[in-house]
Amino acid sequence: MGISALTPPTRPEDVVETTLEFPDNRLLIDLCGEFDRNLAQVEHQLGVHVLRRGNRLAVIGDKSNREQAAAVLRGLYARLESGRGVAAGDVDGAIRLGRPMPNDHLRTSDEQIEMFHGSPTELRTRKRGVEPRTEAQKAYVANLFSHEMGFGIGPAGTGKTYLAVAVGVTMFISGAVEKIILSRPAVEAGERLGFLPGDMKEKIDPYMQPLYDALNDFLPGKQVQKLIEEKRIEIAPLAFMRGRTLSNAFVVLDEAQNATAMQMKMFLTRLGEGSRMVITGDRTQVDLPRGTNSGLSEAERILSGVKGVSFNYFTSKDVVRHPLVGRIIEAYEADEAKGS
Q1: Are 211 and 279 in contact (CB under 8 A)?
Q2: Inter-residue contact 180 to 174 (CB < 8 Å)
Q3: The model scores a pTM over 0.70
Q4: How far apart are the C-alpha atoms of 155 and 136, rounded to whole Å?
Q5: What is the sign, positive or negative, of the torsion defined by CA atoms of 132, 137, 138, 142?
Q6: Which terminal residue of the chain, N or C, has fewer Cβ atoms less than 10 Å from its own Cβ?
């Protein structure tokens, strides 16, 4: 990697440091970030001090934090050596996973499964690479490649849908599937569909917008539009899935907590040959009418232990949006715990 740990000179006994040497000053500048913001992020999240001395970084702190910070910095430098950039999210991901990120990327479906058994790996899409940033995300992505049906259950901001779409795009690009189908229940939350302006597509599109947003992160806009016109990408409400057999497709059902038990059974039984199906949801945000059971909870109860079906769970610790989102979720969870 071009990085060597140096034996630090004699220091007062109350100061413990690890010194790392980085031979390429240009890459070191990128590692530190604008106004050293990447170093500040490492300091804040790991409780260490990082001092820059020429082409060396001195990491000061207790042994475990110091060693983790040194591993993170080595991993991020290796990332830069491989030609990839380092943004705040990459620093956060390296810290959460606690080890350097690899340089390899996914190719065929079989290779994807094999790689994910060992280490966090980058998903390569047409526009950007995507990496799991927590252990729960890493396990989730691994299961999406190794199981025909996967459930991702947890609070908002944990990457459930985003990573599912990234995996779908990766498998589509590699030729493992022929189409991508993304769906959501068009549950009325405050406004009735009949009273919204426009034709049916215009009424439904706002419900589907998060799925469009994810796709546009991974594929050029013109290509997304062309693939939609060719029916190789479909974005449709859950009700439109009835009566279909979804073969050779990567299928995602988002916001599954708002599917009724009957809708969920209908959807799950659409799975056809050569397809993968992902169901994501947040049990704390059910918008169904009072007294209507969530199909997600029922499926979780019935399908637990069924061969070929995986369940992955996320918590506030896996939130990868603004850090405040995680604290908000924790506050709500604590309040609910008091009420129960």
Answers
A1: no
A2: no
A3: no
A4: 13
A5: negative
A6: C
Separation of alpha carbons 74 and 211, rounded Å: 35
Composition of the chain by helix, strand, coil, percent to 5: 45, 20, 35
Amino acid at 1: M
Those residues with Cβ within 8 angstroms of residue 151's Cβ, 6 or more apart along the chain or in another chain: 278, 279, 280, 281, 296, 299, 300, 303, 309, 310, 311, 312
Measured CA to CA in angstroms, residue 272 lies from 53, 161, 246, 267 at distances of: 59, 21, 5, 11
Gyration radius (Cα) of the chain, Å: 23
Taking CA 184 as the corner, what is the angle to CA 157 and CA 334, rounded to the nearest 5 degrees?
35
What separation, in Å, do the N-terminal and C-terminal C-alpha atoms of the chain show? 52
Nearest to 295 by CA among 241, 256, 242: 256
Could you give the CA distance from residue 287 to residue 220 in angstroms, rounded to a whole number?
33
- Token pair, residue 224, equals 């997304």
Top mean-pLDDT range of 19-23, 57-61, 84-88, 263-267: 263-267
pLDDT(96) > 90: no
Residue 164 in tokens: 């599912």
Tens of pLDDT, residues 128-173: 778 888 889 999 999 999 999 999 999 988 999 999 999 999 999 8
- Lookup result for tokens 């390296």: 94
Contact predicate 2/73, CB 8 Å:
no
